[in-house]
Amino acid sequence: MSAALDPRTRRLLEGPIVPTLLRLGAPNVLVMLAQAAVGLIETWFVGRLGTEALAGMSLVFPVVMLMQMTSAGAMGGGIASAIARALGARRKADADALVLHALLIAVLFGLLFMGVVLTGGRWLYASMGGTGAALEAALTYSNWVFAGAIVVWIFNSLSAVLRGTGNMAVPAIVTVGGLLVLVPLSPLLIFGWGPVRGMGIAGGAAALLAYYLLGSLILGAYLWAGKSVLRPSLRGQALRWPLFADILRVGLAGTVSTVATNLAIGITTALVGSFGTAAIAGYGTGARLEYLLVPLVFGLGAPLVAMVGTCIGAGQRERALRATWAGAALSFAMAETIGLLAAAFPHAWLSLFDADPAMQAAGAQYLRAVGPFYGFFGLGLVLYFASQGAGRLFWPVTGNVLRLAVAAIGGWLALKFGGGLLLVFLAQALALLVYGSVNAAAIAGGAWFGQVGWPRRTSALLARLHGMPGS
């Protein structure tokens, strides 16, 4: 017999779309801002160690973000989507069982990231242009972070489990509360104080791992205390391949997309590396703002995964599409506003991290060229999250692969024919335009499940977006 609907699930199926997305997205944006602040706090403190340390951290940053985006966005989206669709279809027992399957996936992927980066880090960062003190700083930071990769994966997977139920508040509280530990701990371990000896750049990594470990313990305690919609168990539960597959078919496709995103940044870092260490630091610092958009858009994307997945599980396809376009409009507006401000005032951002003139010049060139196209990045990214909820990721992955091709080939051609940094960055801008446009065109063209009936009059469409009577 099918289970009764939980109030959170009912809200996803019946609540007014835009207010529900905003209400669920508000704590999620807060949690993502807090996670972004984790990286920015670290960068600010490491920047006090010098340009070489900042360049070293810039070399590692795309790899760390690959792990973050894979665990929280790609595989995390697969976890949230699977749980949301199970709850929408009133398969409560499957939703409970998915928690254990999600944690096993997290441990395996954490071990994979640990092994690959610890053994291949020197080659990787040298290939991206790292030399001398910058390369050694990169290796020190990287080895510390990826030695604790499993902790990062478990934290993000537990957060995804809760988001799949429509619970955005608890991950937000845990993440923001963790900042109260991280803010004093990071400088303490980096610079030392009193009897505590400074660890340099390794101290930032140690503080980061402490943050994720504490958060994982709190999230796990919440789930197993019976306070969630779910009632997970680690004992007496048979593992079932269909449940692994339900997560992996979305998560692995999302991983391809995530790899393409970070590979585009990594390749550009390597291209910029031919202009020197200061250029790497400038581009890496500027690109951090682009990465900051990921958690901001994820703030809306996570409830969109839950809403779209729950609606599709319940057979409400048209509502799933209305929610998708509402989220797309909000994300485009937010990302484009940030991009235009960054292009107009690049030094307001860059000067937070380093005062080196060469670093500032390279970073400003990047923000002025790419910032005006951030809206398309926000558009493509939120449609990727919506597609996770729908379990249809062919076009988001294709769009991201095309982005990678345009960025890599365009940047390479710019250098081959004597172009400077500006042309390399313009290739990045064009790549973002392609990414957003391909995703939007595909979904508008019926890539999920063909054309769904739409209201013909604008007033009726607005009424449907807001879930008003008459829809």
UniProtKB/TrEMBL annotation:
Asked whether the UniProt record includes Transport among its keywords, one would answer yes
Q: Native species of this protein? A: Noviherbaspirillum aridicola
Q: What is this protein called?
A: MATE family efflux transporter
PANTHER family per UniProt: MULTIDRUG RESISTANCE PROTEIN YPNP-RELATED
Q: Could you confirm whether the keyword Transport appears in this record?
A: yes
- The membrane spanning regions, by residue number, are 21-47, 59-87, 99-124, 144-162, 169-193, 199-225, 246-272, 292-313, 325-345, 365-386, 393-415, 421-449
> Where does the record say this protein resides?
Cell inner membrane
Q: How does it sit in the membrane?
A: Multi-pass membrane protein
Keyword line = Cell membrane, Membrane, Transmembrane, Transmembrane helix, Transport
Pfam families named in the record: MatE (PF01554)
